[in-house]
Amino acid sequence: TVVSNVTARPHGSPEEIRSLLIHQLTDPVHFRESLEWLWERGVRDYTDFGPGQVAAGLAQKTFDHLSKLKEGANA
């Protein structure tokens, strides 16, 4: 599954992927919302393939925040 940072939702066709990659360069991205979508479906592990660890740091902060929210809701 490929989740677009433009829509924060999955897509699959090559045409969609091409179009959304273009939009990702010019439109606002929804990285946090993409992470939230993944977290809601049980994703807890991630790998940052970019230079440095910026995306991994943002993912960790987002997942930690979502985990605390869930703990608070279950308390």
Main beta sheet strand tally, sense and closure: 2 strands, antiparallel
Distance between the termini: 33 Å
Kindly report the spatial arrangement of strands forming the biggest sheet: 1-2
What's the tally of helices?
3
Structural class: mainly alpha
Order of helices and strands: EEHHH
Mean pLDDT: 90
- Cα gyration radius (Å): 14 Å
Strand content: 5-15%
Shape: globular
Helix content: 55-70%
Number of E-type strands: 2
Q: Which regions are unreliable across 5 or more consecutive residues at pLDDT < 50? A: none
Give a verbal description of the structure.
The mean pLDDT is 90. This protein is mainly α and 75 residues long. It is globular. Helix 2 crosses helix 3. The chain contains three helices and two strands. Strand 1 and strand 2 (10-11) form a beta hairpin. Helices cover 59% and strands 5% of the residues.
Could you give a quick summary of the protein structure above?
With 75 residues, the protein is mainly alpha-helical. It contains three helices and two strands, in the order E-E-H-H-H.
Question: Which key terms come to mind for this protein?
Answer:
single chain, 3 helices, two-stranded antiparallel ribbon, 75 residues
